[in-house]
Write a structure and sequence with these properties.
Elements (H helix, E strand, L loop, with lengths): L2 H15 L19 H12 L2
Length: 50
């Protein structure tokens, strides 16, 4: 099928599955140990392949 149609089918199937098995929300990071901004920037550069 067309990619746009496939994406629509995936969204519809996700919406139908959501009430049955809701995805648990990711736990918020502990305020006592925030992620350093430098580490986040290094991870972002690594993810971009720079």
């Amino acid at each position: 099928p067309v990619p746009s149609q496939r994406r629509t089918d995936w969204q519809v199937s996700t919406q139908q599955r959501e009430p049955e098995a809701p995805v648990p929300a990711a736990p918020a990071p502990a305020p006592e140990q925030p992620v350093p901004l430098g580490a986040f920037q290094r991870l972002l550069r690594w993810w971009r392949g720079e």
